[in-house]
Every structure is written in structure tokens, then in C-alpha cells.
Design goal:
alpha/beta; about 350 residues; 7-stranded mixed β-sheet
Length: about 350
């Protein structure tokens, strides 16, 4: 392993206020299996709110967030064979795992039995604390680095590395990619709008659920959903009973589950990718042999497949590009759900 690299410039939170400000640090040197990338864009995920504000009570300050990273390769280690200088690459939500458990061995590294090393706020291989993509460069093992398809705009690739794979992974696992299947999507934020985009690309019939009628136009006319239901309207919900094969629930706010379970056909599945409190009657599962499943992000292989699929199908997330200097305001807006649909920081142009 080479000596430590040059100074890395970033933005960090110093305490539970979550306020971010300029911060300089050094990363580990480039090892034989490592890729060094200059960061050009980084998506803003709700996880950045969670850890900058210590909501899980495990934040290690100073904390540099960001796990939707896209950059350009500037150096590779002697054993690296999948990437070369000049390539556009991505780094997602984790940067290491045990590589030897049953899940790592089937390309489901995100479920590593010993736990993954997260892209920020985790202990790295050299004992330091990982720092994320709100920074000038990153060093990552080639196994956990993704190839951004040629011609795919890097600013759009960034949100795919968390928001995109979080909904793509369960859709593939549950075989939701079969034309004609009916899918309900709860919530129309960063994850929900990607579920709609993937669903339309797969040829599904999509119903969007929201508490706000104001989302109807964007759901139907901008994203191409087939139906829109105001979830607080009992008449609309009753009319949709037994109509859906699957539901993807992207909402993190607490909400009732029994009304949604009644919308599933026999054998239907509701997949949680948000993190609400779950309360429902067992009868909602027993009648119609229905099930609830959870899902995190995804393994290395399926994440690369997702990136390639987005490029081939011309799927682009909705983004708002911002300079790093706007990040504190952006996080406040994210908490208020005031973004369509993902902030992306232009690191290359604004981080000096």
C-alpha cells in the first residue's frame, strides 16, 4: 500500500446539529486492489440527514456524509483489472464486506453476515473512519466500485447508487419485471419515483398512492403512472381492493398497513423500503396468503446490472443540481420533502 494520499477537501458535520462546513483530512493510500477516483457528483440521501444529526446514536464526528458517489478514475492499484484511468465510476452505500460468507459468495454483499463497511461513518480497513462523498476524492477497493455506462450522464448516475438500487433490487428478487403485473407505489419521493420509472420500463401497470392530491399530475402525466389514488379517500381505496400483485412502500412516516394489504391479490406481497412502524392485523396476511418483505440496497452484481439497465432503457432520475455551499439548506428542504426528487451536489465545480 502506498503512503497516505494528499489532502482531501470535504464538508463535515461536527456535532448533532448536523451543520456542515469545510473540513480537510487525508485518506488511506492506494493499495494494490484500490481505485482512486476524483469525485465529480454526489447524491444527497436521507441517510445524510440521519447520520449528520446522530439519529441512530452512532455518529462519529467529524462526519463527512454522502454515499451516492460518481467520479473519474485518476489512479489504480497494480492488481486492478476492471478499471482504468479516465473511466467514470461510482461508489454506493458500502465499500467493504467480509468477502467469505454465504451472502458475499453469492454477490449479495449488502447482507454480509459480519456487516458491511459503510461508505461513511464506519471503520475502514486501515482503522480510520470512512468519510463519504461530500469530498474531493475517494479510495475504494475495486470490488466495490461500479462502472458508469458510456454516455450515461454522471449527475444522473449518482442517485441510482442508493435510491435506484433500493427499489430495483426487490423488484428483481420478487420478479416484478414481468409485463402486465400490477404494482402499487406508496410515496412519490426519491425512491418512489424510481419505482415508477422502473415499473414502466418493465411494462407494469402502476398505481401511485399519496396522501396529497397535488401529486396526481406529476404521477400520471410526468412519470407515466397508470392510476393515482389518494390514500386517505376510503372510497378510492375500497374500489382498488384485490387489484395489485405487489406494493412497494417507500414511505418512512408511520401509516396504517391493513388498508394497503386489502389491495393485494391472493399471494401478493408488500415490500418495505422505507422505515415506518409496522402495525397490522395478522388476518391481513392470513386471508389471501399475503406477505410483507423488507429490502435494503443491493449486491455488487445487481447494482451494476441496474446501472446498465438504466443506460439501455434511458431511465434518468429526477434531480436538482446544487453547489456544496447550498448543502445545509438542501438538507433542511429534504427533511420537508421539498425536492423533486434527489439533490445532486456538483462537487467538481463547487468544492474548492
Amino acid at each position: 500500500m502506498s503512503e497516505k494520499m494528499e489532502e482531501c477537501i470535504g464538508w463535515a458535520a461536527r456535532d448533532e446539529s448536523g451543520h456542515l462546513s469545510p473540513y480537510s483530512f487525508t485518506r488511506r493510500g492506494v493499495g494494490s486492489d484500490d481505485v482512486y477516483l476524483k469525485i465529480i457528483h454526489c447524491g444527497v440521501c436521507y441517510a445524510d440527514v440521519v447520520w449528520t444529526r446522530n439519529r441512530l446514536e452512532d455518529s462519529k464526528y467529524p462526519l463527512v456524509p454522502g454515499h451516492e458517489i460518481v467520479g473519474i478514475v485518476k489512479e489504480v492499484g497494480s492488481n486492478v483489472d476492471g478499471f482504468k484511468v479516465g473511466d467514470h465510476v461510482g461508489v454506493g452505500t458500502y465499500v467493504n464486506s467480509c468477502r467469505d460468507c454465504e451472502y458475499c459468495n453469492i454477490s449479495q454483499e449488502v447482507h454480509c453476515t459480519k456487516g458491511v463497511v459503510r461508505t461513511f461513518n464506519s471503520v475502514d480497513v486501515d482503522g480510520t473512519i470512512t468519510k463519504g462523498g461530500y469530498s474531493s476524492y475517494y479510495v475504494v477497493d475495486q470490488r466495490y466500485c461500479f462502472r458508469i455506462p458510456d454516455g450515461y450522464p454522471p449527475e444522473f448516475a449518482a442517485p441510482l447508487l442508493c435510491a435506484g438500487i433500493t427499489v430495483y433490487s426487490p423488484m428483481i428478487r420478487h420478479k416484478m419485471n414481468q409485463p402486465g403485473i400490477s404494482l402499487g407505489v406508496i410515496g412519490l419521493g426519491g425512491l418512489g419515483h424510481m419505482a415508477v420509472k422502473f415499473g414502466k420500463a418493465f411494462g407494469l401497470s402502476i398505481t401511485v398512492f399519496s396522501t396529497s392530491i397535488s401529486k396526481k399530475d406529476e404521477a400520471l402525466n410526468k412519470l407515466g403512472a397508470d392510476k393515482f389514488i389518494v390514500s386517505t379517500d376510503e372510497q378510492q381505496m375500497t374500489a382498488a381492493s384485490n387489484s395489485l400483485n405487489f406494493i412497494i412502500d417507500t414511505a418512512s412516516g408511520d401509516h396504517a398497513f391493513d388498508p394497503y394489504m386489502s389491495l393485494l391479490k391472493t399471494g401478493g406481497t408488500l415490500v418495505l423500503v422505507g422505515a415506518p412502524s409496522v402495525k397490522l392485523s395478522p388476518i391481513s396476511l392470513i386471508r389471501g396468503m399475503k406477505s410483507i418483505s423488507g429490502s435494503a440496497t443491493g449486491g455488487i452484481k445487481e447494482t451494476q446490472e441496474m446501472l446498465d439497465f438504466c443506460a439501455a432503457s434511458k431511465i434518468y432520475p429526477g434531480i436538482e443540481i446544487i453547489p456544496i455551499q447550498y448543502i445545509n439548506e438542501a438538507l433542511k428542504r429534504l427533511i420537508k420533502r421539498d425536492v423533486k426528487y434527489r439533490f445532486v451536489i456538483d462537487i467538481e465545480k463547487s468544492l474548492k
